[in-house]
Design a protein that fits this description.
Blueprint lengths: L1 E5 L11 E3 L10 E10 L2 H8 L13 E2 L3 E8 L11 E5 L7 E5 L3 E3 L6 H4 L6 H11 L7 E4 L5 H12 L3 E6 L2 H9 L4 E4 L5 H8 L5 E6 L4 H4 L3 E9 L14 H7 L2 E4 L2 H7 L1 H16 L12 E2 L4 H9 L8 E3 L11
Parallel strand pairs: 9-10, 9-12, 10-11, 12-13, 13-14, 15-16
Antiparallel strand pairs: 1-2, 1-4, 3-5, 3-7, 3-16, 5-6, 6-8
């Protein structure tokens, strides 16, 4: 089968190539073979390709197949499985930029009613991060105000929808005018351009000088966020997408003076250490999806075939993408459902 394999870390996404490799074979009773119809692009994919992610020091080393999120149909499941051949599923797991992937049974989920493969491809590794951080760690409550950085990005559009479903007021930062519209369509109450100097003062003004209760930070803006955080507020650190793999440094006295709670959330590690929490995250998410509070936000550009993955990755790196950039890997044999 065809796949994008990292045999060595690359300097440019143009250096990524399609390779013919043997089809993966499930080796455990808990493993499922899936035909990948669509795969989504994540910021982590950019780091993995270049070898600049913290996991590249030990956990993710060449050779490996790139890609984390996918949607498709079950090609094979053992008789004891909850899945059967032909089931429409989405999930997360290393190796999504390929025609087939072997995934753990528990990492797969049924595609929601009314969603197609393209819609669901960007859900498996993104939505649970936003939900887990806001609900499990942040304990966001109705009536509170949350600041969501990069509110038009993959994690951001999910965080905005989840926060609104919880009854929170949502202030969002974005980096362009086009992304302002995206953030508003997903439910943001206030949108602030963080390319403008002094955006922190605008956020404080939007809260009548009180500051926000919670910050959802996937960018690496803890330092500046402390300026618009309410005393005793919570800062949720879920990534460093704005620093190209670099790690932000913050003077600890500022955290002390603000009496801030800085909370890290790493969904993948939580999934490994506390499967019961993962079940709670997905149970809550699926309720919000079924109730119509969480909907797909797919970037308008069309990417077709594994050969288009490098272009999609460049677009994400260049900050052109809002929502999720999704690549058609192989065609499905069914019509697109109507929402």
């Amino acid at each position: 089968m065809k796949a994008i394999v990292i045999s060595r870390f690359v300097d440019s996404y143009s250096d990524l190539t399609i390779t013919d490799i043997p089809e993966p074979i499930p080796k455990k009773r808990s493993e499922i073979l899936v035909n990948v119809h669509f795969a989504a692009i994540n910021f982590v994919d950019l780091l993995y390709a270049r070898g600049t992610h913290q996991n590249n020091t030990a956990l993710v080393r060449p050779p490996f197949t790139l890609g984390l999120e996918f949607a498709g149909t079950v090609a094979y499941a053992p008789p004891c499985s909850i899945w059967k051949s032909g089931d429409r599923v989405f999930g997360a797991g290393l190796g999504a930029f390929a025609e087939k992937i072997v995934a753990k049974e528990g990492s797969l989920h049924a595609i929601p009613a009314g969603w197609d493969f393209e819609d669901a491809a960007g859900l498996g590794a993104t939505a649970p991060v936003s939900y887990g951080a806001l609900v499990e760690r942040g304990r966001l409550k109705a009536g509170e105000t949350v600041l969501v950085h990069a509110g038009a990005g993959g994690l951001g559009v999910m965080a905005v929808q989840i926060a609104k479903a919880l009854g929170a007021r949502v202030v969002v930062t974005v980096g362009s005018g086009e992304k302002t519209g995206v953030a508003r369509r997903t439910g943001a109450d206030v949108v602030v351009d963080y390319s403008v100097d002094g955006w922190e003062k605008i956020v404080v003004g939007a809260t009548k000088g009180e500051g926000v209760d919670v910050v959802f930070d996937s960018v690496g803006l803890v330092g500046k966020s402390l300026r618009c955080l309410k005393h005793g507020g919570r800062v949720l650190v879920v990534g460093f997408a704005g620093s190209e793999g670099g790690i932000e440094k913050v003077a600890m006295n500022r955290i002390l003076l603000k009496q801030a709670q800085v909370i890290g959330y790493r969904y993948g590690e939580t999934d490994r250490m506390d499967p019961e929490e993962t079940k709670r995250v997905w149970s809550g998410l699926k309720q919000l999806i079924a109730q119509g509070f969480v909907k797909p936000v797919v970037f308008e550009e069309t990417y077709s075939g594994l050969e288009d993955v490098p272009r999609a990755m460049r677009d994400l790196a260049d900050r052109k993408v809002w929502g999720k950039a999704v690549v058609r890997i192989s065609p499905s044999q069914e019509p697109k459902p109507k929402l």
